[in-house]
From TrEMBL:
Organism of provenance: Necator americanus (Human hookworm)
One GO molecular-function entry: histone deacetylase activity, hydrolytic mechanism
Protein name: Histone deacetylase 11
Catalyzed chemical reaction(s): N(6)-acetyl-L-lysyl-[histone] + H2O = L-lysyl-[histone] + acetate
GO cellular component: histone deacetylase complex
Amino acid sequence: MTFISRCENKMIALAFLAPSLVTSVDILLDKVELPLLELIEPEQKTIYCYASGEYALMHVFERTIIVVEIVVQKRRFVCQKIGTMFGIEKCHPFDAGKWGRVYAMLKDWHLISDESTVRPLEATKNDLLIAHTNLYLSSLYSPCVLAKVVEVPIACLIPTCITDKYFLKRMRYQCGGTVAACGLALERGWAVNLGGGFHHAHRSFGGGFCVYADISLALKILFSRKLIEKALIIDLDAHQGNGHERDFGDDEKVFILDVYNPRIYPWDHKAQEGISRSVHVGSMTSDVEYLKLVKRNLSTALTDFRCDLVIFNAGTDSLENDPLGGLSLSPECIVRRDEVVFRLCRQNSTPIAMLTSGGYLMKSAEVIANSIKNLHEKELIELRA
């Protein structure tokens, strides 16, 4: 969760680190509670603020763009632990460790540093109730319901206290990351959440390893705060984004462009009715054809639907040999795809928030990192180590 403010006539971004990460105290402020995306006016470069019963470290950065869910010990990032979920993720093809590997690569390449990244706050139950029913959120504490949502049958045997701490909690942080990325994009023009994109979850249920509807949550917060009037979702994950399509299918404020393989999960025909522009691709779709489809359809959508924000669900499960995507795109195509999307948004002066979404190959992390590096080299984004 990120808070936007102004300091010395510059837009800056603020972010909480978890209370358990505090190692020293610079300044203690009065006890205050800060809601999502609240505007505040700090004067210090490093301050402490009270939240959820504990003091949490807050840093002020001049350039804070990448949002990443990380584990920190004594201010050192432990990248290899990012995304581990008590082994639950090993029972599903989803590569839950890719987020940490992307972060580690970008840091090794001296493109980002600890000081130029943000860790969001964990989405609270009150936050999640903006996008979900109370009945659904409560049902996640039934092992069998959660096992069905994440498609891991053995999860039925895992105690709720464990799944909440080592799995659901991490998913809630990624929801906070999506909210933060959208807020940053509006202020800075772009942002990347190294996680999120749980496009199969909707108001009353989840599926396909997607527990919380982070895209719907972010948009509903932005709409309720009147920070945007219209938004465009471009979903380039190989799977149909049936979650946000069910949530916003009849909402004229949201345009959904979904380029997906209709021959694979979720086969949600009802949700298909909510797609504003549907583009079908398959195993025979070449790199060249795919890029033409993306460029032509997004260009038309941005021209016809003048929006305030683009949420880019940039799944990498469309890579060749991905076990679930059923497509055959090269890594170079994915890098080029992301460049096309960012360039079109730049040309239309539209803020963009990128989410990494699905990807079931070990090489997905490297492809994502190379894509972000390419965006930086093409001056479509600006990274700072």
